[in-house]
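Homework help thread (please don't just give me the answer)

Our assignment gives two proteins as sequence + structure token strings and asks us to describe the second one. The first is just a warm-up. Here they are:
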Amino acid sequence: GLRKSFGKAEIIRGIDLSIGKGERHAVIGPNGAGKSTLFNLITARFAPTSGTVKLHGKDLAGLQPFQINRMGLSRSFQITNIFPAMSVFENVRCALLWSHGYKY
């Protein structure tokens, strides 16, 4: 029953989705279909108008992105920030260490 409206414009209209451990799903659709809004809801970047998003049975409402990340859910954006002087392995290692709470 996940819904998201911006004013009178209802963007997400009652999504019900359950993804099991190890499963992969794709979200496809034309520009303006609500794909980014759905991902923003799933990752708690946006609060839903109604409904809930749960990870391991816990409601994500009110949690900070770093808390959600430490629970095992992360997202990437199309615009990436990498350390150009470091190898691919070192860049990935930094991301992994951050996900486990380590700081530079």
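The one we have to describe:
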Amino acid sequence: MSARLASDVWVRAYLKRLELAFIPAYVTAHGHAEAGAILIKCATLDGRARALHRSYDLMTGQRAWVTLAEGPEPEVDAAVARQRKFDPDLWVIEIESRDGRTLLEEEGLAD
């Protein structure tokens, strides 16, 4: 079992990876620096988007990125807003990627 990074450290590292891959990204909501959950919204610039959040599988003990909402961007924005109301410590990072690339499947981000 590996130690978890503080949320703000993970966010800064993720934003740097996105920058190096030439994927525009913005923090649209600052969460709790140490323990805030992180939500990634990927807008494909065609009116559609997908929001992903971390989920913990109790059976395997693994953490994975799973889709919270997907579809027309206004609907995804509404789902993100509902999550923010439920969890004010939530970080929200918005990515603009025509091909939906988030880098979340890469080593160091996937687990």
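TA reply:
I won't write it for you, but here's a hint about the kind of observation we're looking for: The two ends are 11 Å apart (CA to CA).
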